[in-house]
Design a protein that fits this description.
With about 475 residues, this protein is of the alpha+beta class. It contains 14 helices and 17 strands. Strand 16 and strand 17 form a beta hairpin.
Length: about 475
């Protein structure tokens, strides 16, 4: 059975609504979008897909015109396919599906108007997410499809996952234009000391967090909590537990809202994994597993226990086996690896432990809330791809009946028995491209595609002279 035919039934049903040419196979359910246009005075619709970096990419449409277009059965909207195959700077590779070699053809977009939503942080604007499709099938290289594939394979074991996401980011004073004009030097965080858990934040920060919580709630994306973090200007936002794909969508929209709310106040919200030396911003993924009846299966005592079930142990073992070779999915950039330092609260070893924040996999909670916190991804990671890596690891552990090593009860940074986290994207990419499990779990086309995208970031940095190199070598080399 091909990987396309293993793709989730939900995605296939959505794809069946449109053909890339001619009239739609069935009537398009544009009712929710039309209602938003009528009830909220929506004038602009952002029709967007999620790119390889986890960003919204697409086009602005006149709202009424887009509704008419979708209802008329005209061709599905399209955009250049390279948006799911480029790097952060929109550099395209020379070979592969989205390259100069391919001729930069278009891909069709399948709008999901059922989940259209107003964006309160943009005036009179709504968002419609769309799946990239190829010949009426979900595009196999699109991040949403990569994740759906892993969800479907996990479902084949009678399991489903739920996830809660925590993301850290740093707020800087001044606009992005100011920062660019200064050569990205001298950035000023909005706080100047360690304000971890502080409730006496400066007024501009309080106003920003209040605005962010307000617009997200109005968009149906309620925040569970916002807290100050340890680095200068650093905040963390936690979202409630939920379905995997919905959590990813929520995270992508949260970043869009945070950047807009910061810009309104003359600030910059940075989601770099390491925006400054000694500063690391993570994306912690809290994952639970459930059976077909939605019963939690990670614990052997669902009422109040903290012990892992046999299946839970297999899941942990799978994560510790697979995540070391899927680095480009959870740490996709050269900068991503500058976050992994000893005693930094970012893991440096593939260890696991119970309520141990020095580990890569932290078992936390009890009873029905027992879950696995995967602390490897940075704030820069694409949540669709990071979660695809996590689900692939869990599935591998369950299928292979793996057993984890002993839990780390103390400082995991000193656990020399545990494999070290890669020191660089180049090191991670070698493991990714040469690992048999990576190709088997993701499929060779996905592996080759993501390797090409990672190599674009490597190539960008390879020939650039940095401030650190000048400081160290200008007069000493």
């Amino acid at each position: 059975m091909t990987s396309r035919r293993r793709t989730s039934r939900t995605v296939k049903l959505r794809a069946a609504r449109y053909r890339t040419a001619g009239a739609p196979a069935t009537a398009s359910p544009t009712g929710p979008l039309r209602q938003l246009v009528n009830d909220f005075g929506v004038e602009t619709v952002l029709l967007a897909a999620v790119d390889a970096q986890g960003r919204l990419k697409g086009k602005e449409f006149d709202a009424a015109g887009l509704v008419k277009r979708l209802e008329s059965g005209r061709l599905a909207p399209e955009m250049c396919g390279y948006v799911i195959g480029t790097d952060l700077g929109m550099t395209a590779p020379t070979t592969g599906s989205f390259s100069w070699e391919s001729g930069f053809g278009d891909i069709a977009l399948l709008p999901d108007t059922r989940h259209a939503r107003v964006l309160p942080w943009l005036p009179s604007t709504a968002l419609v997410l769309a799946d990239p499709v190829s010949k009426s099938w979900p595009h196999p290289l699109a991040p949403v499809t990569v994740l759906a594939e892993q969800q479907q394979r996990l479902a084949g074991l009678g399991l489903s996952a739920k996830v809660g996401v925590e993301t850290e980011f740093v707020l800087y004073e001044g606009s992005a234009r100011d920062a660019a004009a200064a050569g990205w030097r001298g950035l000023r965080p909005v706080t100047r000391d360690n304000r971890d858990y502080a409730l006496d934040l400066p007024a501009p920060v309080r106003e920003f967090t209040a605005r962010l919580r307000q617009v997200l709630a109005e968009a149906g994306l309620a925040v569970e909590a916002v807290k100050a973090e340890g680095a200068h200007g650093q905040l963390e936002v936690t979202f409630p537990y939920g379905e995997v794909t919905a959590a990813c969508e929520q995270h992508v929209l949260f970043k869009h809202a945070a950047r807009t709310a910061a810009d309104e106040r003359g600030m910059v919200a940075s989601f770099m994994a390491a925006p400054a030396t000694g500063v690391g911003s993570g994306m912690h993924l809290h994952v639970s597993l459930h059976d077909a009846d939605d019963r939690p299966v990670l614990t052997s005592a669902p009422e109040d226990g903290t012990a892992l079930s046999e299946l839970g142990e297999r899941a942990v073992a799978g994560l510790l086996t697979v995540l070391p070779v899927l680095g480009p999915l959870w740490a996709p950039y050269v900068n991503s690896y500058k976050r992994f330092a000893d005693h930094s609260f970012a893991p440096a070893r593939f260890a696991w432990g119970r309520d141990n924040r020095s580990c890569a996999v932290r078992v936390v909670g009890h009873g029905r809330s027992l879950r696995l916190e995967v602390r490897l991804p940075g704030a820069d990671a694409n949540p669709y791809l990071a979660l695809a890596a996590v689900l692939a690891g869990i599935r591998h552990g369950v299928e292979a009946g793996l057993k984890p090593p002993p839990a780390t009860g103390g400082d995991a940074y000193l656990n020399r028995e545990a494999e070290a986290v890669p020191r660089s994207l180049a090191e991670a990419l070698v493991a990714f491209e040469t690992s048999e499990p990576a190709g088997e779990l993701l499929g060779e086309p996905v592996l080759a595609h993501l390797a090409r995208v990672a190599r674009l970031d490597l190539d960008h940095h390879a020939a650039r002279v940095t401030d650190a190199e000048l400081e160290r070598g200008l007069t000493q080399a």
